[in-house]
Specification:
Length: 313
């Protein structure tokens, strides 16, 4: 395995590359752009890269399905870091292009819902066509395929384009979450401000099936930060659930939750416990622990049970 290489969703100039460059270790790695999320993750599976950074969730559009499906169904990988990046788009054009001359625009499909209102207000007649990434859209504009692309302003010099309009966003403070995935190993050390990710399959479809799954978390005071269903491909109504919760597998309440899920669900894929991130200079607060769910509470309860079993209660 090439420990000096990190793969990412390319080409050069993507928001994924910008997010990757915020990690201190990126300065000492060879950053390798890949054509798709599956290609980036397969580079890790095949030993061509030590890790890959890919987008997993957007605050406007929701989950990035390519990443969710790859983490759920491909050869196992684990998440070791996450990066939150605030997203604002620029309208990149070839030099000399005016707004009145733009008839076709492009960008990543996840970008479109984030600029839809701006498009309707300023380019109502422009035709949208999706690109593999925002940076790939910029490349296509450079090559004359489209008139304009929505991408990061930082991508303009790479493709010889100009930012005709900057700071475009329908939702202020929109963010995208990226995850750094590698081969399975011991989870990152517990920090007190952690997130645990997993994929859970229901045993069968029956009334209250999802509630039973969620009760494993609520009964132990574990806060869910995200849950999204994805079809399994086995027929209508068959889903798995991508889940994020606060806490670390080293926390007793989280470990007990995972054991409860494993007892009641046919398949649970642990995707890692890792430090929660914040965008920019924001500070990540420590995870709030409800009374009765701290590790010390579990230890005290276990000691009480042992005394009961020994007749010493």
């Amino acid at each position: 395995m090439s420990a000096s290489r990190y793969a990412y969703l390319g080409p050069e100039g993507t928001f994924t590359e910008a997010a990757l460059r915020t990690l201190p270790e990126a300065a000492t790695r060879e950053l390798v752009p890949m054509v798709s999320v599956p290609a980036a993750l397969d580079a890790v599976r095949g030993g061509e890269a030590a890790a890959a950074l890919v987008p997993i969730e957007n605050s406007v559009e929701g989950g990035v399905t390519a990443t969710l499906d790859e983490l759920a169904t491909g050869a196992p990988l684990m998440i070791y870091r996450e990066v939150l990046l605030r997203i604002a788009f620029a309208l990149l054009v070839r030099p000399g292009t005016r707004l009145s001359g733009i008839k076709t625009v492009t960008g990543h499909p996840v970008a479109q819902p984030q600029v839809r209102k701006w498009l309707a207000a300023h380019l109502p007649d422009a035709q949208w066509e999706s690109a593999a990434s925002n940076a790939d859209g910029a490349r296509l504009v450079r090559d004359g395929r489209y008139d304009a692309a929505f991408a990061g302003e930082f991508a303009a010099p790479t493709y010889g384009l100009e930012p005709l309009v900057t700071d475009i966003h329908d939702a202020r403070n929109a963010e995208t979450r990226f995850v750094l995935a590698g081969r399975p190993a011991r989870p990152a050390a517990r920090t007190g401000a952690d997130r645990t990710s997993l994929v859970v399959w229901l045993r069968d479809d029956h009334p209250g099936a999802l509630m039973e799954l969620l009760q494993e978390f609520s009964a132990r005071g574990v806060n869910l930060t995200w849950i999204e269903s994805r079809p399994t491909g086995e027929g209508m109504g068959r889903y798995c659930f991508s889940i994020d919760c606060e806490g670390h597998i080293g926390d007793r309440r989280v470990a007990e939750t995972l054991m409860g899920l494993k007892r009641t669900c046919p398949n649970v894929r642990f995707l890692g416990s890792y430090p929660r991130a914040a965008a920019g200079q924001d500070v990540v607060p420590e995870t709030a622990v409800r009374p009765g769910t701290a590790d010390a509470d579990y230890v005290a309860a276990a000691e009480w049970l042992a005394r009961c079993q020994d007749g010493r209660a």
